[in-house]
Specification:
The chain has 398 residues and is α/β, with parallel strands linked by helices. The protein has twelve helices and 16 strands. The strands form four sheets. It has a five-stranded mixed beta sheet with strand order 6-5-4-7-11. A five-stranded mixed beta sheet has the order 14-13-12-15-16, sandwiched between helices. The longest helix is centred in the middle third of the chain and has 26 residues, at 121-146.
Length: 398
């Protein structure tokens, strides 16, 4: 494995430079005038920001032959050189760790899944360290095969964990699936791997990836709702991912939709997650059908076979999710809500109910919000973690 390099820093550290770079990263290639328009900056400010980024190799400028005028030189487009740097993203679940090696444009080069034998922090840290070593070796091997002169640096590690995570402190305050409390994960992982580490909530990390590289690119206000083991929500307001004063903004899984309904693990009744989380669905179908189910996959299969009671459980889950999404639309008025997560395997069982409940509960023009379904593989959660590492590298204000 390569030796740990001296930490490389982003060549410019001003809000304008970060805005220019993220605009090109998420929406480029773009002409400089278009960068200025989209970033809300003057052409002079863009020129000042672009120059050191080109000199350091983070941006390149290419002639746009397709836009060549009748006379004179073709226009130049500015784009990010994705091969300039590499990043690692890790998503920790209750039973496995998913790791990806990405380039600066967050394109996945290598993906790995490893089982998690134990959820104790020491075991998880050791597994993360081993996975990072493996991904670094993959990066070195790929460069050796292409005979690159200089190794491309790996400039950061992002780790995504479910639960209450303080990104600024790098601490997992509480993760119910891992049964962790107050684990200083960023500090411990940095000592173990030798890389700069960013730790964030997994849904917020996925939201960063969608904001810069996915269905939220170019949007000022949108939300990501994840359906699966839990019901999560990431919020982007005025172009920024919102964590809130206490780091728990967007917890629609714990919005009460029926106070007379089931007890949630949070202690309240009738939360969206208590009705529509995968464990809750499995439990309700067992009660309704008398069939012993091992997991959510068996629950989906039972409902697809039309077993009485199973479809009704999914219909109620869809209604709860739709009301939760309507709450987000009513409060924030996002342009788009992106629905994702492993629970989308059952989407056909409750899609209609989600839409009907959303329309019924959304107030006025909030019902015009674009609700987009976007199935994503689990590697995308790790890619989200890599996106937070990229974000931390290029922006000093996160």
């Amino acid at each position: 494995m390569r030796p740990t390099p001296r930490a490389e820093t982003f060549p410019v550290n001003t809000p304008a430079a970060s805005q220019v770079f993220t605009t090109v990263l998420s929406q480029g290639p773009l002409a400089r005038l278009e960068v200025a328009r989209r970033a809300g900056l003057s052409p002079a400010a863009v020129t000042k920001a672009v120059r050191p980024l080109i000199e350091a190799g983070y941006l390149v400028e290419d002639a746009d032959e397709a836009a060549r005028p009748a006379l004179g030189r073709p226009a130049n487009l500015v784009r990010v050189d994705g091969g300039r740097a590499l990043f690692i993203g890790v998503k920790v679940t209750g039973d496995e760790i998913i790791g990806v090696l990405t380039d600066l444009c967050c394109r996945i080069r290598v993906a790995r899944h490893v089982p998690l034998p134990d959820r104790a922090p020491k075991v998880v840290l050791a597994s993360i360290a081993d996975l990072v070593k493996e991904l670094l070796a993959e990066a070195d091997g790929a460069q050796a095969r292409t005979q690159d002169q200089d190794p491309v640096p790996v400039l950061g590690l992002g780790i995504a964990v479910s639960g209450d995570v303080d990104r600024g402190e790098g601490t997992v305050r509480y993760s119910p699936f891992l049964e962790w409390r107050d684990v200083p994960l960023a500090e411990l992982a940095a000592m173990t791997t030798g890389l700069p580490v960013t730790v964030d909530n997994d849904v917020r990390a996925l939201t960063v990836a969608e904001q810069w590289f996915g269905a939220g690119a170019g949007l000022s206000d949108f939300a990501v709702v994840t359906v699966g083991a839990g019901i999560g929500c990431g919020l982007v307001v005025h172009g920024r991912v919102v964590a809130g004063a206490h780091g728990v903004a967007g917890e629609i899984g714990h919005v009460t939709v029926d106070p007379a309904d089931r007890l949630c693990h949070c202690g309240n009744r009738g939360c969206v997650e208590a009705i529509a989380g995968e464990a809750a669905i499995v439990r309700q179908i067992r009660e309704a059908t008398g069939v012993e189910l091992a997991d959510a996959a068996e629950a989906v299969a039972l409902a697809h076979r039309g077993v009485a009671g199973a479809r009704e459980v999914y219909a109620r889950a869809g209604e709860a999710i739709g009301r939760g999404i309507a709450t987000v639309a009513n409060l924030l008025g996002p342009e788009r809500v992106i629905i994702s997560g492993e629970g989308l395997a059952a989407y056909d069982l409750f899609a209609e109910q989600i839409r009907e409940a959303f329309v019924a509960a959304a107030f006025g023009s909030a019902a015009q919000c674009d609700v987009l379904t976007r199935p994503l593989p689990f590697e995308e959660w790790a890619r989200g973690a890599a996106a937070t590492a990229i974000q931390s590298f290029i922006r000093a204000d996160v």
